[in-house]
Amino acid sequence: MSEAVSELKVTNKLIAKYDKDTKTIFGFWVYLMTDCVLFASLFAVFAVLRHNTYGGPTAQGLFNLNYVMIETMALLTSSFTAGLALLSAQRKRVKHTLFWFGVTFTLGLTFLILELSEFSRFVAQGDSWRRSGFLSSYFTLVGTHGLHIAIGLLWMLIMMAFILKRGLNDTTLKRIRMLSLFWHFLDVVWIFIFTIVYLFGVLGV
Amino acid sequence: MLHVLDLMASFWLGQLNLKALPPNPIQWFGASLIILVPIMAAVLLTVTKRWRWLYREWITTQDPKKIGVMYILVAFGMLLRGGADVALIKTQQALSVGASNGILSASHFQQIVTAHGTIMIFFVAMGLMFGIINLILPLQIGSRDVAFPFLNATSFWLFFFGMVLVNVSLVLGDFAATGWLAYPPLSELRYSPSVGVDYWIWSLQIAGVGSLLAAINFIVTILKMRVKGMNFMKMPMFVWSVLGSMLLVAFAFPILTATLTLLALDRTLGMHFFTSGAGGNMMMYVNLIWAWGHPEVYILILPAFGVFSEVVATFSKKRLFGYTSMVWAIGAIVLLSFIVWLHHFFTMGAGSDVNAFFGIMTMVIAIPTGVKLFNWLFTMYRGRIKLDSPMLWFIGFVVIFTIGGMAGVLMAVPPIDFQLHNSLFLVAHFHMMIVGGVVFADFAAITYWFPKIFGFKLNETLGRWAFWLWLVGFLTSFIPLYILGFMGATRRLDHYSASLGWQQLFIVSGIGAALIGAGVGVQLLQFAYSIYKRKDNLDKTGDPWDGRSLEWSLPSPVPFYNFARLPEVTSRDAFWEAKKIHFKDNRKYEDIEIPKNTPLAFLIALMAFLFAFSVVWHIWWVATMALLAIIVGLIIRSMDEQTDYVLAAQEVEKLDKSHLKGARA
Amino acid sequence: MKSQTRTVAADVMVSLHQPEEATLKKYVIGFTGSLVLTFGAYLLTQYGALSKPVMIIVLAILALSQFVLQLIYFLHVGKEFSPRLKLLVTIFMVLIVFILVAGSIWIMDNLKGRMMSQSNMVKYMNSQNGL
User: Fold this and answer.
1) Domain boundary among C81, C108, C123
2) ipTM of model
3) What residues contact B4, with CB distance under 8 A and at least 6 apart?
4) What is the pLDDT of residues B306-356, one digit of tens each?
5) Could you give the CA distance from residue B496 to residue A49 in angstroms, rounded to a whole number?
6) Chain B neighbours, 3+ Cβ pairs < 8 A
7) What domains can you pick out in chain A, each with its CATH number?
8) Which chains are adjacent to chain A, needing at least 3 Cβ pairs under 8 Å?
């Protein structure tokens, strides 16, 4: 009897812990959804201003699709490796987790550097965000995504430090799940940037 | 040499210099008042030796009840500030006729009108709403806390510092003179070169992020933390309406954040989103700001509807009529409120197809609102109605809201809107909705739930006086505006010709505003007197109004852990049903986890304030430091895995029994 | 009875430690699918010979398919226990995003058709002595 009671207590504790974790992750999911609306506003602005080039360059003249394709591949692969990192973490393999996060970080950083060098190339040509409404909305939409990537990279670094220091305990695991959600989410947003900004842009839609 | 000094000053202080101080006596007076308030507070705290108390009980608290009280205090403070603006506006409009130019310059008048709108919506209406939600929502769903207490505290402090930033603009620099939504191109750097619009942008940005985080918090709280047995269709109506409202906040406020950011980018980085040249499109701003702005209206009104649903049922001693239809009405409003935003700019020039679609949608959204109104009336029908002051506020609301609502449906017809757009008719309409709807509900809520939080009722006589002063003052103030609107008076009017014959009506409106002012005065007196005489009005039962929902099953004031033992819910109006049967209570006490106090939420919001202030003045080094400090703060917070402490079951039992004894004595 | 099932369910979940069923297989499916769709879109744009309107529809379909694919296989939407709150919130988000973007484009496009273009406006203003 007493054994049953103590077992019940342990289970209750586990349920409480599980409830708390799902609560946090669900809350984070709601946050991601609100972030989608933020991006949607920027997409709407881009859609409205995309032809307001004011004598400046058009999307067709500006974008190099091969370059963007390399960026896209880096990000897509990093989304995959972030998933692998979560899998390793759930199996409590510290080294694997760190390795896959390392790969994800490198790919993410590559993406960010590629994007920033594209930006600086445009600015050096005299096509900065001050040039036209189209360029303002291009830099802001893509830049906001880039800012999210930068925040994700910073988070990943801190996460790796936590894994090294504290191992894969329940709290760390919960946070890894949120980080991987965040990273996949950024890849999802990129699908639309890739299609609407770059592909449609090159087509002159 | 001087040049070097200049460079240094612009590095250390950005654009901030002595010219930022107020230019004329009226503004000096306002500035001194704003400075005096914190100084007096500081002196009072020092004299009564309460700094430590302030820090321990309030600044570091994670308790939603205390956070709720702070929201309401700030909101009342801002009600006074916004009210002072009204006094100036009404005086100006009554005097500034023909040859006389009144007491204010045109630019100062526009700043005051802008500040009035911004403050009343963001820091009074939103503040009262979030305050009441914090106080009551966890209690109604049988929860001991919100989903994320730390986030909740952060939300409040962001709201608080957003408010501080608006008020700092009285002392340093100026405020936007653009109207409360700051339409470009007027709000662009070219036409508003001073820091006013930047103050507006960043105070809303901080407060807006706070609201967004709070919304996520309450959505999760409602969806995941209801007590056992309370399924969706057993939730009190207030909980439903808060859920609807918070969904709107979560999905509308990001649009505001984005729009404000774009305007800020235009102003600080020279972008061209809404400029009149270089490929900007100012109409896109109007489109976006209303895509947020219209849901915002329903964000405010839905919780108000929830409050009235509770009040009407309690004071009619009847079950709420048409519960299911109420839920569907809320759902319909949540969805429809996202597809009516164009009715704020019918006159912008869209074709008749677009205008017709949004006009029809606007009329459609009146239907669920009407459903709710009739449900309340049917709840009263054949009820044993007690006319305590919360119920008076409700009746006042029905009258005003119906008049204002019909004016709204009238303006939903695009050709009519072309006549009334931006006139005082519109001003009268939305004041009737927001004041008669939201603010009256908040006052009803404060009166109704006051004993639950503080343990004693508010003085009823003074409450009635306040209500009648408000009601009469309100009608006196706004009915003339409808008439003036028909006569062609526009909003934000600082001067008009004597031959128009508007002056009498403006004076009548001013008298109405003074009556409202007297009403606010009586309310303050009511608080003071009720606190002074609290022994006469103690609520010993915990159920002073014969209530229906779970919060009334708790002792008043509610202990910090809310529920010593969690209830189980088997029906709607859970407490009402429980009162009818005497069941043997054999629930066991258990350990309770309670979040530890922490100053981090306050500090992070303070850094956000510092960031915003220095961006306004272009002090980039402080902005960078503040941003870094926020990141460090978040890292410090994430390092702490033991954010709760445990209140042992025996301790809970002891505390609970002493409460029960207190109730019986 | 209900609480009992809950206990068992929670037990199973906790012991497995995989509450969201993230598996290698799903990530591989998601990744491969996304690669195919991305390359498809890229190649079509670079070398495709479709007319513009067809192209827009095809690219939009490819993007939306990749969106749904990643939602399911990377973000595990729809794989939770009832009530499916995550799914509901996601659907609501998609709805709002659609309303906001489509509505804005509709409204602004409608306006554009009725307004002078900016360059013409500048010309006009200059002809009126700067207006």
Assistant:
1) C81
2) 0.93
3) none
4) 999 999 999 999 999 999 999 999 999 999 999 999 999 999 988 899 999
5) 39
6) A, C
7) 2-203 (1.20.120.80)
8) B, C
